[in-house]
Structures are given as C-alpha cells and as structure tokens.
Backbone:
C-alpha cells in the first residue's frame, strides 16, 4: 500500500513538472518574438543556448568520465542540427505569429515516422499516415486559408517554420539512434546545447556584428529578464524538468501534457495582443493538435470506429506502458523544443 502511494506521489510530481515544462516552452514563443524584435536573433540564441549548455555541463560533471570520441561526434551532429532548426524557426517567427509558429512546429512529430521510413526502412503505421493527413489539412487552414492581411509575410514565416519542423524531426531521429547505440544522453545534451550555442555565437560575430554594428547589441534593461527567462527557464530548467518528469510518468501522460505547448503558446500570444484568431486559424490549430495526439497516443480512428460498432472497449493501438517502461521511439521528444512528442531521452527544445 505504501509503495502504491509512493508511486502515485511520484507520478503526480512527474505530471506537475511536465506541466511546468510545457508552460515554459509555450510562453517562450511570445517572449522570443518580442526579444528578437529588439535584438539580433543569432545574438539572442547564442545567449540562450551557450550558457545553458555550460551550466548543464556543471550539473552533470560526473558524467564526463563516460566521454568518448563517438559521443563528441554525435553531440556535434546534434549541435549542427539544433543550429539549423532554431535558425529557421526563429527567422520564421519574425514573419509570423507565435501561435502559428508553435502549431506548425508541432509537425515535426508527424514527420519523424516518415523520416524513419526513408532512412531506416521502418514503415509508418496506420495512425502515422492518418495523423500526417490531418496535420497537412490543419497546416492548409493555418497557412493558406487563414492568412489574413499580411498573407505574404505570414506565408514566408510559416514556410521557414515548416523547414524548422523538418530539422527538429531529423534531430529526434538522430537522438533515438544515438541513444540506442549506447551514447550517454546527458553528454549528448551538453554537446548539443554547447556546440549549437557556439555556432550561434560564430554567426553573431561573423554576420550580425559587421552588418549591424556594435550598437545593435546593447541590451536594454527591460530585456534582461526575457533573456534570463529564455536561458534559465525555457532552456536549462525545462530540460531538467522534462528528464525528471518523464521518469515518473507514462509515455501517454507525457505525450498529452507536452502536446499543450502550442496551446499555451496561442493563449500567451492572444493574451499579449500579438494574435488575432479567426475561425480558419482555430480550425487549423485544432486539426494540428489532434494530429499530434493521434501520433503520440498511437490512436487509429478506423479501429476505434470499428470497435464502437462492435461495442468493444476503445484502446490505443500501442500496448500501454508502465511507469518503468520507456516510450515508443518512433516519436521521441526533442529537448526543448518547444515540444510535443514524449520520450525518456533528453532532446532539445521545440520553441
């Protein structure tokens, strides 16, 4: 009895910290947009990731005894992918709204099984295909039908965000492969954040500084809290909370909670007056959200309808997992990212 109570308490703690993680990542979209409107984007991302990676190195300093050349190489690959993903996502955010940016980013979760099919010949299952169709329909409502007055700029921003989603999908595929090969996940995360942050610093020094001048890098007092929020809250703390939360929750619980990242992004954007919701946008957001749930929970709508007709119990297509089991690797979560598919490996933020 005492053991069951302990398990329930740990599960509640896991749910709570995952909810905090989701809120942090969801609000990061609006905070990042207001920050890059005032400061160069590569500069902001360098401040966000490089210190976070170094602090994570101090937190997991004991893990460095397991370091080897393969881990460094794989961490470097992840760092390059992180750089490409956040470059396209952040540039996309300059031309679209935080909610559109967040919901379109969720497409990485649907892309992942199809990348596994292309790269490793793992055929997607029925729910992967269904979620992909629903997601594409939702993206059509968001980007094509519900453009609004600034349709041209929104379409550019949405397109860049979709490219970012593809990079995030590659990131998840690589993380799943590297973890399966026995790489230390904490060291992978350290090298990913540190090398990604270093590349942003190089881009700042080589591109933004010569073109914009030193005066563009002066940080106003009211922006310091936003930078600290992005660095300590949305990057470092959220990563630690995600790793902790997924230790004490099932993959279904984590998947559902992290799916609300885009919902919190929309709520924050509307609350700050940065978003004008239309019927088309709401329909698109709902369709993308449902597509994410289908992918994460392995729900097969066709099988559910058949079971309803037969009067049998409705259950997800995948076998339920206990707290001790790890989630399905076909849709792992990226560290941060501003995320939405759940895995027990510490990937990168999806903001």
Residues:
């Amino acid at each position: 009895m005492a053991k069951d109570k302990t398990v329930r308490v740990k599960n509640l703690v896991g749910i709570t910290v995952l909810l905090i993680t989701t809120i942090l990542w969801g609000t990061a979209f609006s905070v990042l947009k207001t920050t890059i409107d005032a400061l160069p984007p590569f500069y902001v991302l360098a401040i966000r990731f490089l210190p976070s990676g170094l602090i994570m190195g101090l937190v997991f300093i004991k893990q460095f005894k397991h370091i080897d050349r393969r881990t460094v190489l794989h961490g470097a690959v992840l760092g390059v992918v992180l750089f490409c993903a956040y470059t396209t996502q952040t540039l996309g955010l300059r031309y679209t709204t935080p909610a559109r940016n967040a919901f379109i980013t969720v497409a990485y979760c649907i892309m992942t099984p199809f990348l596994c099919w292309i790269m490793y010949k793992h055929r997607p299952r029925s729910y992967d295909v269904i979620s992909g169709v629903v997601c594409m329909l939702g993206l059509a409502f968001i980007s094509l039908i519900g453009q609004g007055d600034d349709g041209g700029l929104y379409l550019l921003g949405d397109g860049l965000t979709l490219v970012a989603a593809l990079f995030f999908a590659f990131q998840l595929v690589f993380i799943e492969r590297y973890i399966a090969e026995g790489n230390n996940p904490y060291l992978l995360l350290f090298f990913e954040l540190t090398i990604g942050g270093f590349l942003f610093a190089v881009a700042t020094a080589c591109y933004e500084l010569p073109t914009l001048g030193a005066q563009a890098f002066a940080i106003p007092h009211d922006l310091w809290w936003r930078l600290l929020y992005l660095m300590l809250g949305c990057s470092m703390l959220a990563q630690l909370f995600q790793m902790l939360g997924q230790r004490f929750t099932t993959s279904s619980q984590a998947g559902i909670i992290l799916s609300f990242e885009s919902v919190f992004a929309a709520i924050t954007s509307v609350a700050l007056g940065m978003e004008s919701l239309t019927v088309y946008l709401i329909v698109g957001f709902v369709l993308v959200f449902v597509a994410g749930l289908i992918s994460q929970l392995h729900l097969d709508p066709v099988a559910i309808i058949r079971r309803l007709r037969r009067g049998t119990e409705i259950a997800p297509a995948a076998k339920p997992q206990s707290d001790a089991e790890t989630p399905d690797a076909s849709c792992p979560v990226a560290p941060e990212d501003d995320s939405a598919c759940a895995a027990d490996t510490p990937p990168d933020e999806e903001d």
About this structure: The mean pLDDT is 82. The chain has one domain: 2-310. DSSP finds 13 helices and no strands in the chain.
